[in-house]
Specification:
With about 90 residues, this protein is mostly helical. It is about 50% helix and about 10% strand. The protein contains 3 helices and 2 strands; from the N terminus they run E-E-H-H-H. It is globular, with a radius of gyration of 17 Å.
Amino acid sequence: MVDCKKCDNGLESFQMDETPKLNVRGKEIGIAALDDIMKEVHNAGLSEDRIGQELLEQVMQKDYVPPSLEKDYREALVREYRRRYG
């Protein structure tokens, strides 16, 4: 297939979405600065019971989290945190 210069369908015009994703209720949700948030919370040395709330609070500073899904987001954030840091 020949690239159409008029349509600019070459690979140079194709952009990858590099926003980190989190699985919330079976849907992939893009979370701004998720990697940075995870590192910051990990480096804070918080107690196990405080980690989930801190992750959620930091995500809510950057992204909208529907109030009805806060618990689901917190659970997904803790799952991802444990996947990364054990």
